[in-house]
Every structure is written in C-alpha cells, then in structure tokens.
Amino acid sequence: MADLSQLVKAYDVRGVVPDQWDTPLAEIFGAAFATVTSADAVVIGHDMRPSSPGLSDAFARGAASRGADVTRIGLCSTDELYFASGRLGLPGAMFTASHNPAEYNGIKMCRAGAAPVGQDTGLADIRALAEQWMQTGIPAGAAVPGTIGDRDVLGDYADCLRSLVDLSGMRPLKVVVDAGNGMGGHTVPTVLAGLPVDLVPMYFELDGTFPNHEANPLDPKNLVDLQARVRETGADIGLAFDGDADRCFAVDERGEGVSPSAVTALVAARELAANPGATVIHNLITSRSVPEVVREHGGTPVRTRVGHSFIKQEMAATGAVFGGEHSAHYYFRDFWNADTGMLAALHLLAALGGQDGPLSALVAGYDRYASSGEINSTVADQAGRTEAVRAAYAGQPGVTFDDLDGLTVSAADWWFNLRASNTEPLLRLNVEAADDAAVARIRDQVLALVRG
Q1: Cβ atoms of 211 and 387 closer than 8 Å
Q2: Where is the Alpha-D-phosphohexomutase C-terminal domain (predicted)?
Q3: What's the pLDDT tens digit per position in 61-116?
Q4: Which residues contact residue 368 at a Cβ distance below 8 angstroms, ignoring those fewer than 6 apart?
C-alpha cells in the first residue's frame, strides 16, 4: 500500500515509479481529482519520462469514470498545460517530476484557469479520497462515463506567448538553447519559429533518462555545456530549460550566468512600461535590485514568501502584472497568473534584440549586488540554530529582523535570509551585499553560528 504522506507534497504529487506509486494509484488520483474539482471536463498533459504516458492514461480513465470528459494534449511543457487549462477553462493535470531523476514522476494539478491546487486548495482533499479508495476501490461513478479525446495545442500555445511580447523590432540573434533532453526540445522550435533567430539546439531529443546531464539548470554543473557552446559559437545568448520547461535560465555572450533576479527586474521594467503603476511580486530572497527597479519604473513591489502558491495568491489578490522568484519561475497576469519560463525568455530576446549592445551590458543595470547563492547546512535543531543567529545580531546598530519566511536580517548594505526546509533537516542561507568581500564575511559569520 502506497504511503501518501511521502507522495503527496505541498504543491504536487511526486515519487519513484513503481516503488512509491503506479498506474492503479494514478487512476485513483484521476477519480479523486475529478471529484474534488467537480469537473465536467479536464485536460491532461505529460512530459517525456518513460512512465508518463501510462500514468497519464490511467489518470484519464479515473477522471472519466467519474463522468468527466478528458482532453489529452499529450507531450507538453508544464506551462503549455497551464495554457490549455486557461484557454479551455478546464481543470488540468500535468504528469512530470520536473528536474528529478528518471525514476521519479509526479502530477502538478490546477483548477480551471490554471489556478493552483495545493494542500490548502484541494490537494489534501484529493489525498484523503485517494487513501479511502485505495482501501475500498473507486466507487461506482457516473451513469455515463466521460469521453477521452486528444487535442494538439502546441501551435495555439506558441501563438499566445508571441502575442504577449512585441517581437517586431528584433535584430537577428544567435541563440543556443539547452533543453536537457526535456520538454523544451518539443516547445522551443515552435515558439521561436518565424523569429530572426539562428537557433543552436542542444539536447533537444526527448529522453526522460537524461543521458547528457540533469535537467536542472539551478545547479551550475548543468550549465557547463551551454556556457561552452555559447562561447564556441559566438552566440548572443544561451537559454537552459528544466525538464518540464517551466523554468528558464540565461547565460550571456561570455558564457556567464545571468541572475534570475536580474531577469525578474528586466521583465518587470518591460511589463511596467506597458502597464504603468502596476504591482510586481517578488519573493524575499530575490535581489534588492528587484524592488528598486520596480519603484524606479513607477511600480509597486510586493514581497512574499518563497513558493509558487504564495506568489500566485499575491498575484490574484493584488492584480499584479508580473511576479518573479530566485529559482527562475516567472509569473504573468496575462498568462492566467501562471509561471512560464518561455514567456520570460521571449522578453529577454525582445529586450536584447531591440538594442545593439551585448546581453552582459543590458543586464548590468539590473544586477547591482553580490550574492552567495543558496547554501544548505544539515542541522539537527533548525529552530535553535536560527535563534542563535538572531541572538548574535540582536542589538547591532542599524540591523533589523523580520520573520515573513524564516529569519531575514538586514542592514544598510547587506542582508541575509535563513530558512528551514519543510522536508529535510536543512537550513538554507542566502546572503546579498554590496560586494563579494562583504558577502563572504557575512556568509562565514552566519555559517559558523549555524554549523557550530
């Protein structure tokens, strides 16, 4: 019997196939999803993992057993599934484990209009039904089962994204794209078709065993091939997508990484030019440059906790035009408040192609501070070590504290955030300061306190 406490996470279902879950359980999840969302119809997509077609088909059978008509869009990126949910007005399910290794798979679920399904918005109810039906079997469903049909939305998805960015004035660009054998290899050629782009593809073959490197661009080792190819080919920009292609990372013409905070600030400036005075969401470990740029362009920055559910909640509550996270998730009001790395990539290409300078110069104004990146420490007493850090900085002149998400300690020319992992005995440290020396000094001080 599957242990759903290990399988159902805060925002999705994720685990090893078939050790932790399999097609019979996927069918139960499909029935529970249709029941909890009261759906007359649902849309389902999947990534390139070997287990994805079988799991998604089982989920479809479960949903249909409860009377829901199922539209299968087949191979797609996660943001393409969000597009289908938004455009068709249907609850959706995406079968992917994002950047996790090949033996994993999962389900990202949403309500109609790409509204998120998390623990507080239906996922706990889905889990409860699934646990019940694992014991009793799925009860007799609708008098008339739903239908299961197929639809290709890739072209409509690409048209939608291109309609949201003015790409008309672009100069020709050489663009290297590393899809990591993930879904970017499926979506990028269609999205970029017709643009003045000399595309240099890397690892576009769909292969859920990830033979070249992990499809996780957040880890610097997975950008090495892209950086080398950009330098070898004299490209203007390099783009790297994760396995389900909802996150996008960039490197400049020198092969140097572009901070997701700089991308957030650049896209925010572009969105504010089109939407004067709008609100922009950023999580609390993005750079200080993000709220600075937002204010400089007449917008209102709103700071949130880390995690897409918090970003999406604030997007909906404030009517924000855009939101960005340090992890390279980018959210757009005009894309149903959902995250799409591909749309952020189009903004980068439009900005770069709309002027004559290199990408390094373009982003320099948005990348104003030095940072440590996220540093993990294994600790037995997360709360105790956090309080030790708080005590060490208490009473220092000009130092302030806040507890929006973990502990953030701020001074005039530096800040750091220390957050406990929800799933592992880890404390996560992020430091930003005026220069590398200051980052190193603060980092070492805090790690000495955390690691004892």
Answers
A1: no
A2: 374-448
A3: 999 999 999 999 999 999 999 999 999 999 999 999 998 999 999 999 999 999 99
A4: 287, 288, 289, 292
201, burial (CB in 10 Å: exposed 0-12, middle 13-18, buried 19+): middle
Using CA atoms, how far apart are residues 14 and 17, in angstroms rounded to an integer? 9
| Distance from C-alpha of 77 to C-alpha of 187, rounded to nearest angstrom | 7
Alpha helices in 164-307 (DSSP H): 184-192, 224-233, 260-274, 289-296
Task: Return the active site residues.
Answer: 98
The CA distances from residue 107 to 11, 80, 81, 216, 335, in Å, are: 9, 14, 12, 18, 20
DSSP 306-372: SSHHHHHHHHHHHT-SEEE-TTS-EEEGGGTT-B-HHHHHHHHHHHHHTSSS-HHHHHHTT--SEE-
Pull the structure tokens for residue 114. 């790409």
Cα–Cα nearest to 93, from 48, 151, 37: 37
Cα separation, 217 vs 237, in Å, equals: 15
Q: Which domains, from first to last, does the chain contain?
A: 4-152 (3.40.120.10), 156-252 (3.40.120.10), 260-364 (3.40.120.10), 370-451 (3.30.310.50)
Q: Tell me which of 190-204, 301-315, 334-348 is least confident.
A: 301-315
